[in-house]
Amino acid sequence: MGRRPWTAHELLDLVLDAGSFESWDEPIDISGQPEAYRLQLEAAAARAGTDESVLTGRGLVRGRPVAVVVNEFRFLAGSIGRAAAERITAAVRRATAEGLPVLASTASGGTRMQEGTPAFIHMVEISRALMAHRAARLPYLVHLRHPTTGGVYASWGSLGHVTVAEPGALVGFLGPKVYEALNGEPFPTGVQTAENLAAKGVLDAVVAAEDLPMLVDRALGVLVDAPTLPRLDRREGEPSGHLSAWGSIEVTRRADRAGVRELLRHGASGTLRLNGTDEGERDATMLVALTRLDGQPCVLVGQDRSRQSPTTPMGPGALREARRAMRLAEELGMPLVTVIDTPGAELSVHAEEGAIAGEIARCIATLTTMTVPTVSVVLGQGCGGGALALLPAREVIAAEHAWLSPLPPEGASVIVHGDVSHAAEMAELQQVGVSDLAAQGIVSRIVPEPADDTAAALAVAVAAECAAALRRQTHGRAHVLAS
Ligand SMILES: CC(C)(COP(=O)(O)OP(=O)(O)OC[C@H]1O[C@@H](n2cnc3c(N)ncnc32)[C@H](O)[C@@H]1OP(=O)(O)O)[C@@H](O)C(=O)NCCC(=O)NCCSC(=O)CC(=O)O
What we know:
It is a single chain. By secondary structure, the protein is α/β, with parallel strands linked by helices. The protein has 19 helices and 15 strands. The protein has helices at residues 8-15, 35-48, 82-98, 117-120, 122-135, 150-153, 176-183, 194-199, 212-223, 245-252, 260-267, 316-332, 349-353, 356-368, 384-388, 409-417, 423-429, 434-439, 455-482, and strands spanning 22-23, 54-61, 64-71, 102-108, 140-149, 162-165, 171-172, 205-206, 268-274, 286-293, 296-303, 336-342, 374-382, 395-399, 445-447. The strands form two sheets. Strands 1, 2, 3, 4, 5, 6, 7 and 8 form an eight-stranded mixed beta sheet that branches. Helix 15 (384-388) links the parallel strand 13 (374-382) and strand 14. It is elongated. The termini are far apart. Bound molecules: malonyl-coenzyme A (MLC). Malonyl-coenzyme A binds at residues 76-77, 79, 109-113, 120, 147, 149-151, 154, 170, 174-175, 177-178.
């Protein structure tokens, strides 16, 4: 940690628009507490300048109304006793009732040792209130400050839709001093840090408190704001269809082919990248983001062609990240976009032991049972079960040269002919190209690839088509709900 830790009041001043904070906190009666503890509480209040270890209320972040729950570490190490726990639970319930997103900022030694089990058990009530909040499709954003440990990290610190920690923050379940005393050896260094946990896919990002307003604004710009009018050029036109299936395969394997990154760069705005499964797994080949695709808010998950190679194939963790995106969309009532672009999933010991086949099955199972609008985009290579895992959305659109096959055409050639020389013939025979996919009803729309065929133009055309497809479904759903 570089600077002195933020106090709760400093954090509120930093994050909320000036003068917008309105406290929800009721006075706390400590008269019934044992004298020694009462004296500790009084001393803590005098030191911290707060009446408890948590402050709650509402305010504006860049004009957006939010409920806030902020830990004060200087009050008995931000520890959570019954009064603090009840304050958090009440604030979350009020936020739910008022339809407000919740932003929590933690800094704590966990359950308050002076209060023990009756306080500890309140982790359950806090979690219950937060899950009711999430069930009401309201956002919960978490910011972990230095240090965040114990029952705070293991309840309201870990239940966010988006979870970030400040640079250098100690974030861990058991405090390192406690570990060392109990185990007779120090806990390994560099593990309980914001940076390590983000690298491991436990946290979404490392974000300084100064940058929290931007993060909250971005997240709520997708999670709360209504769609805006389309602005991208739809690039109407007929598919040229002049290439064979093999010709298309060669086009999609070109280094300058547009991928999901180009789709976001040229066709989206207000993108907030998420990171990992939030369960301790991360695979750079899958990209997950909250974004506005041509003005349409959505959760987007896509296979990143730029990160896949023979040495870094798309593994089972990538598919678990995809399922996190699916869960998020379903829970938040957000449209989901999946982007298919893979030369195939990982074939290895790691993949088998990580349940790659099961993850493909679970992705298919999840996608086919989602109730929110879903669109999949076959953008480039659609090879094998790894591609199929992201395919079965309500509407499937495909770029003109995209393709879908059970395995690489070279593999099919080996199976049937004993060598790879019949790959082009097998691609044709196996009907992998988009015209065949459309004829079979697998693909409902083909996005013509612009004649100039630049990655940017393709990305713009696909983004516009995809957003339009989502709008059609969202509109249709509203129609059904209204009737
Ligand atoms: C959070 C810390 C890393 C911060 O370290 P620092 O070196 O900055 O500060 P410190 O250790 O001197 O602590 C500052 C003061 O806060 C007190 N203090 C720390 N944690 C406390 C807690 N949970 N309850 C009550 N008091 C606590 C310390 O005794 C000390 O008091 P004084 O100033 O009087 O000396 C460390 O305090 C720590 O490891 N705390 C315990 C974390 C933990 O393992 N919690 C699990 C609790 S059980 C739980 O939460 C349930 C669960 O795990 O599920």
